[in-house]
Target: Anthranilate phosphoribosyltransferase
Amino acid sequence: MIATALLPDPSSPLSRDSAAQAFADILDARTSEEAVADFLLRLAERGETSIEIAEAARAMRARLIPIAAPAGAIDVCGTGGDGQHTLNVSTAVSLVVAACGVPVAKHGNRAASSKAGAADTLEMLGLDMERAGALAQATLADIGICFLFAGNHHPAMKRITPIRRRIGRRTIFNLMGPLSNPAHVTRQLIGIARPDYAPVYAEALEQLGSTAALVVSGEEGLDEISGAGPTRVVAIGAVAMADRIVPEDAGVARHPTLAIRGGDPAYNAAALRRLLLGERGAYRDAVLLNAAAALVLAGRDAALPDAAARAGEALDSGAANRLLDRWIAYS
Model:
């Protein structure tokens, strides 16, 4: 195919129609790779607007391979790129929340900026990624959790991935993962590593029709609720939460972020299994804190301390560990 479409000048904010057309042209390979790279870099340098983020997400949603999800399904996901290299908090939270009876359609990928992404860690624990992907809709319906490996559901991104690697820095596509869940969940806990950008990201979610969402950013630049100190929170839709929370709000202790520093997939997998078997400490408290917010988002509890207690019971009873074993056996 000969690339013939011209991308708009991104030096000024794009209109909704202009943004929609630009991302359609990019994902459908109607533009040259050089033009795409230039467009994405200039957009990032200027700072993406909520309209541009929303329209990029709509373009990705229109081209993904979907699955059906039960009512009330949620996703817990971060945009990545925070540079903190922590253990897999959102993956652990997904297991805990699903063990509490909330269906979780976990959208994720292999590591990009960290040493071990969700897919890498789950695979090390014994989850067959190929079968888990093929059976995602079935496991979500039967046991309440699935892993939606991004590469299986976003064929349009095959063209974009090498362009992003060549650029070598953050672009709007770093923000797209949580906004393009193949299960079309409308309730999400999303971590973003830029506290000042959380309101813009939340505006994009509102434009995309989210029922309820919490956009969270640890004030040290963490793409999850921080176990070390304050977190910026922007709530939209049918969920209420203070715009700034600390670990004590959920009844858990503070720990320095370094205390949940991760490693390679084997290291992170071993830590996750120990957590599920009842190990206490900084990792558990970080997971309880984030799981509490997810349970509030899902409507299971109205207050963070009650939700954290529910999450703790899912760990202490072995329910979350048994769920992981069932998932591995299923796949």
Remarks:
- Residues 282-298 form the longest helix (17 residues).
